[in-house]
Amino acid sequence: MNQNVGATDKRFRTAVGALAGVASLATLAGAAPLPDLAAPVLGVVALMMLATAATGTCGLYALLGVDTCPADAGGSR
Q1: Does residue 72 sit within a domain?
Q2: Mean model confidence pLDDT for the chain
Q3: How far apart, in whole angstroms, are the C-alpha atoms of residue 23 and residue 75?
Q4: What is the span of the domain harbouring residue 45?
């Protein structure tokens, strides 16, 4: 699968993933006033955002035909 996540998109996904991870851990520790169900949901969101940022590939983008990764001059990614 070709990369379809650009540099700005990766930075955004990394930031959102980190924030969701911190919120998930804070909920587990009882430091955040969120429902108990929020911790695993935020944890999954964090893992998905960080994984797509690390790999540069988003399955949903592939299904929708979205590509934020600019093509090189040689045409390969």
Answers
A1: no
A2: 89
A3: 40
A4: 7-64
